[in-house]
Amino acid sequence: MKNVPDKEFLMGLKDGALRVQGASKIGDDIIMAEFALRDDLVYPSELIEDNPNEYSNLPETFYTALSYTAFACDDESAVSSRIVIKDGYAYSKGRLAACKFYLGDEAVSMIPEPMFVSPSAIGFVNRDASKKYFIKNGWLHLMNEAGTVLSMRTRIDPNFPFKAIDEMLVKGSAEEFRLPANIRDILLRCVPFSGHSAKIRKVDVRMDKGIMSVTAKRSDGSRFLEKTKCGDTASPIVFSINVKTFSDVIELADKYQTDGYRLLGFGTNFVTMISIEASNDWS
């Protein structure tokens, strides 16, 4: 629908399908699509909880917490595909990263039991401004002021690694540093040279004597290198990191620290850890 020029659409059921048609297009100039309706994808209406009296208020920082922690989740139906809110913190952990965000003191009482949230809820929460929640029978329901409800499976895991994540995020004694403002643009230019898929794309980063070098290499030998000015560091900082995860984190953190096996990022009420690799190839 985003690619159709019409601002208004006609929609209705016809011959067991959902028909959507641009309102201004008729006859030989028609734009129309029909979507098959599948009974196996229709959830029973009794699953939807629409009584606002059964709902509890969400903390005002709920959307911010989701937007800061969703990037670390993996795209699979497992514990690593969920954001978990517990004791006022939103946690997430995936194959490459872990993080937590503090929602504020009020969240401790407003969400007294662990809440498992799919990162796919971000779009709904951002667009429709969810204000309340209700958890029942393995389902999380989010409601906005207009009474619109989004329902999703919770996939509760009693063994979610809260303690392990806290340990991963402990601040070390290494030097803190900042990245140059143009790092996001450099990473965009690196992508075509960094690998064939988002899961394996990586770049090598070196910061030394006020210069940051970023290198990307493909398996066929193609290579990209860009150098830019950065803040001075007491000693060289060198690491190899996944491009997508790194790109996500630079939008959220403003200070960093590394000890050779992880990159820690710090922001307001936020801390994250990305797994990194040693990198010594600067020929």
Describe the protein in words.
- With 283 residues, the chain is of the alpha+beta class.
- It has 3 domains: 9-42, no CATH class; 47-161, DNA Polymerase III, subunit A, domain 2 (DNA Polymerase III, Chain A, domain 2), CATH 3.10.150; 183-275, DNA Polymerase III, Chain A, domain 2 (Roll), CATH 3.10.150.
- It is 15% helix and 35% strand.
- It is built from 6 helices and 18 strands.
- The chain has helices at residues 62-69, 105-110, 122-128, 162-168, 183-190, 243-249, and strands spanning 9-14, 17-22, 32-36, 56-57, 83-86, 89-93, 97-102, 115-117, 130-136, 139-144, 149-153, 202-208, 211-217, 223-229, 237-242, 255-258, 262-267, 270-275.
- A 7-stranded antiparallel sheet has the order 8-5-6-7-18-17-16, sandwiched between helices.
- A hairpin with a 2-residue loop joins strand 12 (202-208) and strand 13 (211-217).
- The radius of gyration is 23 Å and the shape is globular.
- The model has no long low-confidence stretch (mean pLDDT 89).
Net shape = globular
Q: What string, H for helix and E for strand, traces the elements in order?
A: EEEEHEEEHEHEEEHHEEEEHEEE
- The count of domains is 3
Gyration radius (Cα, Å) is 23 Å
Distinct helical segment count: 6
Q: Key features?
A:
single chain; DNA Polymerase III, Chain A, domain 2; four-stranded antiparallel β-sheet; alpha+beta; about 15% helix; about 280 residues; 18 strands; seven-stranded antiparallel β-sheet
